[in-house]
Prior knowledge:
The protein has helices at residues 10-21, 33-40, 51-60, 70-75, 97-110, 130-143, 165-170, 182-191, 204-234, 239-248, 270-283, 289-292, 294-312, 335-345, 364-373, 377-380, 385-391, 402-407, 425-428, and strands at residues 2-6, 25-29, 64-67, 79-82, 119-122, 152-155, 175-179, 199-202, 316-320, 349-353, 394-397, 415-418, 434-436. It is of the alpha/beta class. It has two domains: 2-204, NAD(P)-binding Rossmann-like Domain (Rossmann fold), CATH 3.40.50; 297-436, NAD(P)-binding Rossmann-like Domain (Rossmann fold, 3-Layer(aba) Sandwich). Helix 5 (97-110) links the parallel strand 4 (79-82) and strand 5 (119-122). Residues 318-425 form the UDP-glucose/GDP-mannose dehydrogenase C-terminal domain.
Amino acid sequence: MRISVFGLGYVGCVSAACLASMGHEVIGVDVNQVKVDLVNDGKAPVVEERIGELIAEVVRTGALRATRDVREAIMESEVSLVCVGTPSEPNGSLCTTYLERVTEQIGAVLAERAGGRHTVVFRSTMLPGTCLNLLVPILEKSVSGTAGVDFGVAVNPEFLREGTSVRDFFDPPKTVIGELDPASGDAVLALYDGLPGEVFRVPLPTAEAIKYADNAFHGLKVGFANELGAVYQALGVDSHQVMDVFLADRKLNISPAYLRPGFAFGGSCLPKDLRSLIHAAQRADVSVPILANVLPSNSAHLQRAVEMVERTGKRRVGLFGLSFKPGTDDLRESPLVELAERLFGKGYDLRIHDANVSLSRLLGANREYIETRLPHLAQLLADSVDEVLDHAEVCLVGTRDPAVLSALPHGDGPLLIDLIHLPDADTRRTEPGYMGLAW
Length: 439
């Protein structure tokens, strides 16, 4: 394919050189004449493993050249990769100035381009909605045409680590294609023909969001490991030995476990152990802002459910689920008990059903916990699913009990606030009266 790459920084330079080495005909575009001259001389404008030899080879064969001329690049290509920077503004917001400028320039040339559909592919990191709400309108205004019809638009985030970016390009962890329409996605897919890794074709905002999910998690992992290391050093424990064992657990730790948006966590272990670890860090004068804010974050997530109920304006509320985990009657530090307590305290007329929870069977710490946190539980518990449904104007679903799931109405009946991402959530979200907690 004939490809133009806008921006010859790390991402653009590596993308251009690697695509050229795969047999594509690539034109690099940059406003910096020094970068353009370096590429045309077969030299890399960035310091990166293998990039120097790669650029020298593809320039020698004529597969890659560079220019400052936007018109020349667009006229001589079928696909444009936009790889310009999106730095932070002083207040932390995303700077889209370079994206907007390049998009306007591309649109102006597309307006006069004839023969064959051109696809604009945004590879720059940008917040969800930037492409659809900002860049597509710029293109449509410049071209006086319709995106997805007169020209293609896609979002193709990169997952290249500086220092190993050439290796990462040829052996990607995944390929994400945000497509406005199937033809736009097909054009991007053709760029990477033959590369390994799973391909995900998703809506434009999803592709934009995936990049942020990745980078936020990477930062969180580094911070988490460093905070643990600082605490364990203070406690005289070998942190690397701890993490060797931690990383060996592929069932719960390095796995998809606990990484699906849902309701707040609770139970007899997680809150207690987090508090103990944070207290130990404080006694050792070790600052652990990530760990110290896990429980406040959890509480804030629970509060979102309360606020969703408040926004409905309804007063009769039903709650399905009470124990902290399905298949148990353990109520200790259950987030559903906390939710019930907050709603009851705000004066809501509440009914609760959990098939595993019977006041007469609660013993020991379980009973003591309920008598302390929700002493009026007896008057709130309902014996059946139907009793809750008949009572409630709005129902919160915090269980996957088959009896509850099969009884939940579609469309008619009480409003549903889904706390757990129901098995049919994707269908229900198109129905009136359904609200997902974080989806």
